[in-house]
Design goal:
Radius of gyration: 21 Å
Number of strands: 13
Number of domains: 1
Strand content: 5-15%
Distance between the termini: 6 Å
CATH superfamily: Amidase signature (AS) domain
Mean pLDDT: 96
Low-confidence stretches: none
Order of helices and strands: HHEHEHEEEHEHEEHEHEHHHHHHEHHEEH
Strand order of the largest sheet: 6-8-7-12-13-11-9-10
Length: 476
């Protein structure tokens, strides 16, 4: 890093601290926008986290943002899997190379109303279909802790941007762990809200059955502030939480499930990190007991997820054939991995897939039974710390074995999405070569319990000053 590329004086401030500087007129939104653009220009060539920049529009918008808003003009990056009016949305696919939504979804309207200034979109695997963040349009995103490793699943571009120091927070979506897995692998906080908690992220105003919108951030308070600004205030499903400010005095009964029998075993470093977290929780006065994981038959879950993903992508194949007159793989509009999966899924037996998918319907009740006895569930985020970049590729062809190996790395996070519960990855494990998060899950609607615990853990074991070797703060 040259002298002109040295870290700026604001690098260690979170988004709310930057907003305070703007409100005090010590920094203008446009000045901060230029600072963050420069951060991106320095760090993106190494980490590859941005897909579509929107710097000029952000520069134009910056002076118009009111300092009375919570974030007062602080820049943010948005995951390339949500509609931002006028900004290319690719979902990491050639198929969407011309997809420019005309209007924001409700979630993005609220995010912009909070005073956040959108600078562009972050990298994703094609249609969130790969265990690492890589596609054939933009390439692979690299982990700032070790450039030979990925940033895990589809919010991986967002995680690299935050962990690399470009922005203090970034938008993410979580449909199977994608706010939590990348956060774990990069040493930041990743939050998944309860289903229906947030404003809609869909163009028709609906709520995806498994996917929620929230954020990856360096501080708990930034995440809590963005939740306040983007949650559904109507109270139709859950009473709004408002601004969650800090820990509380309530001591929790926390169940610890160290594994789900079968599939990919938990790596020793991952297990050690969770055991260390359990020790920390006890030292803070919480009760920690060992419990069985709610998912007792992991193979049934895997089969159900295969059926679910086949149904979710079912319309893509006929659309491509209709557009091109060619087979899905032959068309070249999708990566070999995604195209070969869609072609294989077209031959799945519909009745058998419906039976497999039905296994997912029992997940909410299974989690509810655990929460009859505990307030919070602690598990690993993944059985592995993080996949290497060479572990999988969008050039791979689908096989059942490869698909199950992928889903097995999401075996702790994915079921939570079908349960509809809030969950978070907190960066507490620092004794390995890569960060290892701890995964906390709460009852549906009890997002506030997780935020209070996150604030407490942030005070007990601060992580904001832990920077990756290939971040802007490291000078590399």
């Amino acid at each position: 890093m040259t002298q002109s590329e040295s870290p700026d004086e604001f690098l260690n401030r979170d988004a709310l601290a930057l907003a305070e500087l703007i409100k005090a007129k010590e920094l203008s939104p446009l000045e901060l926008t230029e600072i963050v653009i420069r951060r991106i220009e320095i760090s993106n060539p190494k980490l590859n986290f941005i897909t579509t920049p929107d710097f000029d529009r952000a520069r134009l918008r910056a002076p118009e943002i009111s300092s009375d808003t919570p974030f007062a003009g602080v820049p943010i990056l948005i995951k390339d899997m949500i509609d931002v009016g006028g900004l290319l949305r690719t979902d990491g696919s050639r198929l969407n190379a011309q997809n420019i939504p005309k209007a924001n979804v409700a979630y993005i309207d609220a995010l912009e109303a909070s005073g956040l200034n959108i600078l562009g979109m972050t990298n994703v695997p094609e249609f969130a279909s790969l265990v690492l963040t890589a596609n054939e349009v933009f390439g692979a995103t690299r982990n700032p802790w070790n450039l030979d490793y990925s940033t895990f699943t589809s919010s991986g571009g967002a995680a690299a941007a935050v962990a690399g120091g470009a922005t203090p927070l970034a938008h993410g979506t979580d449909g199977g762990g994608s706010c939590r897995l990348p956060a774990s692998a990069t040493g930041i906080l990743g939050m998944k809200a309860s289903r229906f908690r947030m404003l809609s992220g869909e163009a028709d105003g609906s709520h995806d059955h498994v996917k929620t919108n929230q954020t990856l951030s360096r501080s708990v308070r930034d995440s809590a502030a963005l939740l306040d600004c983007t949650e559904d205030k109507s109270g139709r499903i859950y009473p709004p939480l408002g601004r969650l400010q800090g820990p509380d005095k309530r001591r929790l009964k926390i169940g610890y499930a160290d594994d789900i029998p079968g599939a990919v075993p938990v790596e020793s470093d991952v297990r050690a990190a969770q055991e260390d977290t359990a020790i920390l929780l006890k030292a803070l006065g919480h009760e920690v007991i060992e419990v069985a994981h709610p998912i007792s038959d992991i193979n049934a879950y895997f089969e159900g997820y295969l059926a679910f993903f086949a149904e979710k992508t079912r319309e893509i194949g006929p659309a491509i054939i209709g557009m091109t007159g060619k087979g899905v793989l032959e068309s070249g509009l999708l990566t070999p991995w995604m195209a070969s999966f869609i072609e294989a899924a077209a031959d799945f037996d519909a009745g058998e897939m419906a039976t497999r998918s039905a296994a997912l319907d029992s997940i909410p009740a299974a989690f509810d039974r655990v929460f009859d006895d505990v307030d919070v569930l602690l598990t690993p985020v993944s059985p592995v710390a993080c996949p290497r970049l060479d572990e999988a590729s969008p050039r791979d062809l689908y096989s059942y074995e490869a698909f199950i190996a992928l889903i097995a790395r999401l075996k702790f996070t994915g079921p939570v999405n079908f349960g509809g519960h809030p969950a978070m990855s907190v960066p507490l494990g620092w004794d390995s070569s890569l960060p290892i998060g701890s995964h906390f899950i709460a009852r549906r609607g009890e997002d506030a319990v997780l935020y209070a615990l996150a604030y407490e853990l942030e005070e007990a074991r601060p992580w904001a000053d832990r920077w990756a070797p290939h971040s802007l703060a490291s000078g590399d």
